[in-house]
């Protein structure tokens, strides 16, 4: 592979993204970038030392700056502050003001050196930060998307798989809406190896998993990780690397990523949230407006309304 990726922000998440990206084995060059002087150099050196091990690919890893991304194929933005340990709920919107300044700074620099790279955003509050990045800068809209509820959906599949005692990879289920407290499961679409969950429940003779309980669990479990270890990084780093792979290999894989919603579900570009989307070499190839039931539509609109409130606050940040 003759591809290049940049990782902007090398805190707990960005550092783990770097590790995951190296293991993919599809990038010839990886550039780490951070505002802290020499942090990117230290991360590059640390990871370079693993290249002599048989389990690690021999790729070019270096610290650098935004200007080094002029020929990057993918840029992952993980810059910004993290949610503080000890909060009652994982409210990423508390980071709005600081993260808005960060994304404006980063995107302002990126647009000066490239408009070709696919940009994957992790920075929280994700939906709002993605909206700022996608609407305030002259950058191809389809080439910018956020990790969205891809991790939330992995958590959903995990709890369903555990409940029914099956491999979680056999579960097809998505969380939609905000990457945050108002996310919800598209319960009517859940299947286990293509079998609707209600039918599967009858086949195995088990009580149907409670829709509201798993919604609350998936939203809360991120906070459990945060409070147990002080930060979350393993899951989201794996998600970002998986999305980068889908781009480089033009996999046309479907993930619930975050984009500005400009026609689906009646919206017209005034909000961003996660719905299933096809991801390939050009970024977001197509957004998929899946049919939701009445309850799910209400949850979607409630989530969108909440995100709009946060976007309005971000737009006032100077």
From TrEMBL:
<dbReference type="GO" id="GO:0006089">
    <property type="term" value="P:lactate metabolic process"/>
</dbReference>
<feature type="binding site">
    <location>
        <position position="34"/>
    </location>
    <ligand>
        <name>NAD(+)</name>
    </ligand>
</feature>
<protein>
    <submittedName>
        <fullName>L-lactate dehydrogenase</fullName>
    </submittedName>
</protein>
<dbReference type="Pfam" id="PF00056">
    <property type="entry name" value="Ldh_1_N"/>
</dbReference>
<comment type="similarity">
    <text>Belongs to the LDH/MDH superfamily. LDH family.</text>
</comment>
<keyword id="KW-0520">NAD</keyword>
<keyword id="KW-0560">Oxidoreductase</keyword>
<dbReference type="GO" id="GO:0004459">
    <property type="term" value="F:L-lactate dehydrogenase (NAD+) activity"/>
</dbReference>
<feature type="domain" description="Lactate/malate dehydrogenase C-terminal">
    <location>
        <begin position="149"/>
        <end position="316"/>
    </location>
</feature>
<feature type="active site" description="Proton acceptor">
    <location>
        <position position="179"/>
    </location>
</feature>
<dbReference type="InterPro" id="IPR001557">
    <property type="entry name" value="L-lactate/malate_DH"/>
</dbReference>
<dbReference type="InterPro" id="IPR001236">
    <property type="entry name" value="Lactate/malate_DH_N"/>
</dbReference>
<dbReference type="Pfam" id="PF02866">
    <property type="entry name" value="Ldh_1_C"/>
</dbReference>
<feature type="domain" description="Lactate/malate dehydrogenase N-terminal">
    <location>
        <begin position="4"/>
        <end position="146"/>
    </location>
</feature>
<dbReference type="InterPro" id="IPR036291">
    <property type="entry name" value="NAD(P)-bd_dom_sf"/>
</dbReference>
<feature type="binding site">
    <location>
        <begin position="122"/>
        <end position="124"/>
    </location>
    <ligand>
        <name>NAD(+)</name>
    </ligand>
</feature>
<dbReference type="InterPro" id="IPR022383">
    <property type="entry name" value="Lactate/malate_DH_C"/>
</dbReference>
<feature type="binding site">
    <location>
        <begin position="9"/>
        <end position="14"/>
    </location>
    <ligand>
        <name>NAD(+)</name>
    </ligand>
</feature>
<dbReference type="InterPro" id="IPR015955">
    <property type="entry name" value="Lactate_DH/Glyco_Ohase_4_C"/>
</dbReference>
């Amino acid at each position: 592979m003759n591809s290049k990726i940049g990782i902007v922000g090398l805190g707990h998440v960005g550092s783990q993204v770097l590790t995951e990206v190296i293991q993919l084995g599809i990038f010839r060059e990886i550039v780490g970038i951070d505002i802290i002087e020499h942090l990117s150099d230290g991360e590059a050196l640390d990871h370079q030392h693993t290249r002599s091990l048989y389990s690690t690919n021999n790729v070019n890893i270096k610290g650098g700056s935004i200007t080094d991304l002029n020929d990057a194929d993918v840029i992952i933005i993980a810059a910004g502050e993290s949610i503080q340990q000890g909060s009652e709920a994982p409210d990423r919107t508390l980071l709005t003001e600081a993260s808005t300044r960060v994304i404006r700074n980063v995107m302002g620099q990126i647009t000066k050196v490239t408009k070709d790279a696919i940009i994957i955003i992790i920075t929280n509050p994700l939906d709002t930060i993605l909206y700022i990045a996608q609407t305030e800068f002259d950058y191809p809209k389809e080439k910018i998307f956020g990790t969205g509820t891809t991790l939330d959906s992995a958590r959903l599949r995990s709890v369903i798989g555990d409940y029914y005692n099956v491999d979680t990879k056999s579960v097809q289920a998505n969380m939609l809406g905000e990457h945050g407290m108002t996310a919800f499961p598209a319960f009517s679409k859940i299947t286990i190896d293509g079998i609707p969950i209600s039918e599967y429940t009858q086949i195995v003779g088990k009580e149907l998993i409670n829709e509201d309980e798993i919604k609350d669990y998936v939203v809360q479990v991120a906070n459990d990780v945060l409070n147990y270890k002080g930060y979350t990084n393993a899951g989201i780093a794996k998600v970002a690397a998986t999305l980068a792979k889908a781009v480089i290999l033009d996999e046309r894989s479907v993930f619930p990523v975050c984009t500005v919603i400009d026609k689906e579900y009646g919206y017209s570009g005034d909000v961003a949230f996660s719905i299933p989307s096809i991801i390939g070499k050009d970024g977001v190839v197509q957004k998929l407006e899946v049919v939701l039931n009445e309850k799910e539509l209400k949850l979607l609109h409630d989530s969108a309304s909440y995100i709009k409130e946060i976007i309005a606050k971000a737009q006032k940040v100077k």
